[in-house]
Batch of 3 targets.
Target 1
Amino acid sequence: MTHLTAVLFDVDGTLVDSNDAHAYAWVQAFSDEGVEVPFGAVRRRIGMGGDKLMPEVSGIEEDSTQGAAIAARRATIFRERFLPGLQPFRGAGQLVAAIAARGLTVVAASSAKRDELEPLLEVAGANHLMDDKTSSDDAEASKPDPDIVHAALAKAGAKPADAIMIGDTPYDIDAARRAGVAVIAFRCGGWADADLSGAVAIYDGPWDLLARLDDSPLAR
């Protein structure tokens, strides 16, 4: 990455320990609308957009009347029940700050809705550190489609070859690679190394990459 100019950050499961919370919110929202789905099926799809998760686990499309009710219920449950208790992964804000201090542009590239992304970045201690932010509202198609990554690249003013993404799920890897962007993966989101194949490097979490920054693909 000799011409590296930008780093694109996923947020959920990467900077904030929120993947389980999202899964529980989905399961409860489905249940409240009379649909029972197994937690494990939902958990393995956290990281892709809700518009893709919903039909995969239930056969219900998000743009249907029932789907819209489930999506709205999930948002309420997550915001009221889970968001106030979320914690950042150790070193999350410090990692973003250290990368920005190296003169690299840092942009959030998240499948979260815009109204959830800001508070998540506040939890991470990174909201004021980001040069810009992209959410699912900025993309026509959600992860693992590459639209969010393309939008983040545009906001960073970077070419795909000059950027790297940091994420925690196979959906981050698929989205970034389809956009021509290399990926660093974190294990802290709950995925095994075999699931994260395709990443140029894998670390335990923000604290691990921060400790080894000078020997990482981000070293310049």
Target 2
Amino acid sequence: MKTIELKIDGYERVASRVDRDYHGLIAIHSTKLGPAVGGTRFWKYENDEAAIKDLLRLARGMTYKNALAGIPFGGGKSIVLRKDITVDREKIFRAHGCFVETFGGSYITAEDVGTNPDDMAIVRRETKHVAGLYGLSGDPSPFTARGVFCAMQAAANHRWGSDELAGRTIALQGCGNVGCHVASLLHKAGARLIVTDVDPAKVDRLVKEFGAVAVAPDEIYGSDAHVFAPCALGGIINDETIPQFKIEVIAGGANNQLLEERHGDELEKRGILYAPDYAANAGGVINGCRELLNWEASQSLAKVDEIYDTVLAIFGTAESEGIPTYKAADHLAERRLQNRER
């Protein structure tokens, strides 16, 4: 077992641990507002450098997400690198729990892409610094989806003068846990759905349950829709996809949707209203407050619904300061971080 500390400017601690088939990375971006909270991603990357780059972006995003959501936690993230071998999840996630424990409570993990409450129960055998367990806050995806829906309503209000999504067409990328719940909410609201996913079975489910129209993964960007809802992986707003967009609004559950910050500037130039990802998808971490802060379920839901007002405030700040919405979100989060320092 070997742990290597990585010195990276702007981060409180970044470490890597290797133990046989386990290779984990943990980053703490900030604990100014409280212990760093962020899920564990179980994913295969092209190389270690790509994994670290993603880790750092995700950890920073959690700092800003938690600040903007108004909850007393900092930002962190962890990645368990997936390899081309048969996975013994118990051994891997017990090793990950041991790694989390070395942070002494300054980092608290939960599920993320590629992990689930069963994995977190295994992590819990080695550390108490874990959330998202069955019987407690559990699966965060319904709450993440609810927040995305609130963000979409706020964007509709700002762009078209009404919260109503009935009759609007939504191009939904990613039909996993969050995407499926978003689709359900949109269907109930009377929206039309265009959907895609790399897993055809997930697409078929939404077609059957909600009457969605299926398109190939590469076709979703050029869909004739009002809203693009990215609910898969990040970096999908980029030089290749932006020219294809016919939509007026982007609001989804994926993290790090902008490949680079300049792509947020490009959306602004094209008149596409962007609900910054870490504002829209904060419902999951807010739900975790049921475990971490002993909130009632109703308290968590009320806080998730505040995402509507937060997103409207971002749009208002963007207009008053003459800046893109992603910068406006950063400004609001940074003000809350600065106020805590005083």
Target 3
Amino acid sequence: MNIADERTRDRAAARTRFIPSGLRPRVTALLAGVLALGAAGALAGCSAGGASAGEGLALSAATSGTAQVTASQAGAYQVFTRNDDRDLTFNQLLGINNEGQIAGYFGSGNAGHPNKAYALSAPYSQVDFASRNFPGSAQTQVTGLNDQGISVGFFSTQNGATPADDNNFGFWRIGGRYHEVNYPTRNNSKPPVNQLLGVNNEGTAVGFYNDANGNAHGYSYSIGTGRFKLITVPGATALTAAGINGEGAVAGFYTSAKGATDAFLKLRGGRVITIAVPGAAMTQAFGVNDSDEVVGAYTTGSGNNAVTHGFTWANGKILTVNFPQSSSTTVNGVNDEGDIVGFFTDAKGNTDGFVGLP
């Protein structure tokens, strides 16, 4: 069978809709702490699609076309840290599906410390880390996976002194076979940057590419048909599409002409909800589930005083998520049960992956 035949077969498999076989097991035996949540004011405005600022949102005040929302305290998560023993200094957990399988990687990406991808399955012991590196690559990250056995991510053929100078190429994987994906444009950055960051159960992946000026352009990619579609937000000069749910709603972040970086949720009908934590220097969304619950991170302060906090957003309300005794927290993925995954910086300066169960 040649490569074209394999791609055709794998696309046919991707078009088969997933039928859940049952809830994945809860892994309460591994719980080791409580994730601290705090209420955070949320700016949740409708910036496109013709909807009013109050439509579908629990609003308490409004200014300049956005709405100020006060989140109520919602209980804590049960949480445990999970790192691959092959590198205890740097792990990031990036996505989780409805069976509890997790996408992640170890290695900082610095020279001599390459990203090495894995998929982690319950009960999450060391033997449950399975390597997922693109064949022949120097570095790989698996960033998302669905319930059909499809995973997405990106790889590099380089591991230079400056990670930002390494090339990136997107890919999707099914049944042990990898397929490279790059947005079709002649306006690529040098080196080229293409990343797939999320995939839903319909086989639609989302990601971005960088143009010759270094600006990001978000897009969706249908694994079943091979078709691309740009994802846009009015007023954005750069945009990253990071997550997509079963209804086709896309989460990510964009930069405006004024230089502000805010998160967004673009619903299937085209309506865009901007998510910006008041007082934050930057808000970014990285994942979304079928209930339109969005997860991500926001930054307060700048320079050496900058601190990253994780968050969840649902129905116009934001909750801040901080891992106990950490200097920074990022929430990167969420499944339909509300389980979250991400990473934090510990007291030793290491980056550790975590799983949180509501």
